[in-house]
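wait is this the right file?? whatever heres the structure
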């Protein structure tokens, strides 16, 4: 499984970004995919994932602002990030089952 994340960038507080993750290989269901992030000097943390029954799971800090979704192709997921805050600044990683990880995409939110 290989994962390619994209869509990061520099945005002002209150702005929006949309991250994309395209998987290749034995992806199976995109419900096995999700997003984590890691800020400088902090541990990697869950942002948003799909649950086994297809529902979504969000970190409390992003609820109501971020939305995880599946693409029309079975190997793509997105993360729509609205009302961004400086504390959302981190490298965002796409993962498959928590076993495979993409290279990460940098999101920087300026105040």
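ok assuming it is, sequence goes like this
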């Amino acid at each position: 499984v290989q994962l390619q994340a994209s869509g990061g960038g520099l945005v002002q507080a209150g702005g929006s970004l949309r991250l994309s993750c395209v998987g290749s290989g034995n992806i199976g269901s995109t419900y096995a995919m999700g997003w984590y992030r890691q800020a400088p000097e902090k541990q990697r943390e869950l942002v948003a994932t799909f649950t086994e029954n297809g529902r979504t799971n969000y970190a409390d800090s992003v609820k109501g602002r971020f939305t995880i979704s599946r693409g029309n192709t079975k190997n793509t997921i997105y993360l729509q990030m609205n009302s961004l805050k400086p504390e959302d600044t981190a490298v965002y990683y796409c993962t498959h089952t928590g076993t495979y990880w993409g290279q990460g995409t940098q999101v920087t939110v300026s105040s």
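The longest strand covers residues 17-24. so i think its the right one actually
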